[in-house]
Amino acid sequence: MTMTTSTLSARLGLSHPIIQAPMAGTSTPALAAAVSNAGGLGSLGVAAMGAAAARDAVKQTRALTQGAFNVNLFCHRPARADAGRERAWIDYLAPSFAEFGAQPPAQLREIYTSFVADEDMLHMLLDERPAVVSFHFGLPDAKRIDALHAAGCYLMATATSLDEARRIAAAGIDAIVAQGIEAGGHRGIFDPDGPDEQLGTLALTRLLAARQPLPVIAAGGIMDGAGIAAALALGAQAAQLGTAFVSCPESNADAAYRQALLAQDDAHATVMTRSISGRPARGFANRLTALGAAPGCPSLPDYPIVYDAGKALHAAAKARGSADFAAQWAGQGFRLSRALPAADLMRQLCAEMA
Known about the structure:
- This protein has 354 residues and is an alpha/beta fold.
- Helix content is 41%, strand content 13%.
- The strands form two sheets. The protein has an eight-stranded parallel β-sheet with strand order 1-9-8-6-5-4-3-2. The protein has a three-stranded antiparallel β-sheet with strand order 7-11-10, covered by helices on one side.
């Protein structure tokens, strides 16, 4: 390990430069604690929670580990309601609901509150003072950043480009997560309607390590120790793995999700889609992603209003035994998935790095 690699690990008390990605809805206190106890940085994705549930998750994690862990927030622009687009999307999905004997929602809601507008979540963080707080989809304002720094939190934010990295550095954030196009889950791009160079993880990691001073954490498509070593060789101080941890028994993934990850055949492929949530995200192709790509698909409502419909449709299908509309986020390296307890996976990753 190089001197630069040890900087972030030393600051956070890590034995290994491995970060488990937050993965809202899939990460759990048990998973985060297991990774932190194994010498990495476990993470909680609390963006889909209210402040009370997030506080409970933080407390549960703290009861399971004395190590540092990360709490991740979404900083998207709050949704703008559009009754016409929302009605068109409901009507477009209505035949799929009917297939499972269900009615679509009468109207769609903004199911998640962005951290940029969530005072209760800010107060929770200032009370609980997690060692690390990270941001996805953009940045909060300077007041929130200053308050979290004053509370002793180490701050990280996702960048998909050099321009976003420069904005993160200018805001006073401590480290940058370089998310390549290979990554599973939601793309962290600040403006989902703006240009996207779609840089790969290795190119983006090297660019950010060479062109700006903050510690870089490589993310996207990294599944084993060889991938971690490659990221470190390019100047990253740590690697963030998400899909690699989904198959761990400590994750919240259901049986169908695990089966898709572990099939490791050509029957499954990942696609970048907006039709599940309203923002670009990589996951397994399914009937909902196909509807989003079909001719005649209407203009989507804002994120996360689209997600309200997607979750309702998945619930209707799942009640009839179908996972055809599930949000099964996965990176391009998913065929390297291993169904190991998180501590065992951490040991394997470290052995492979060596």
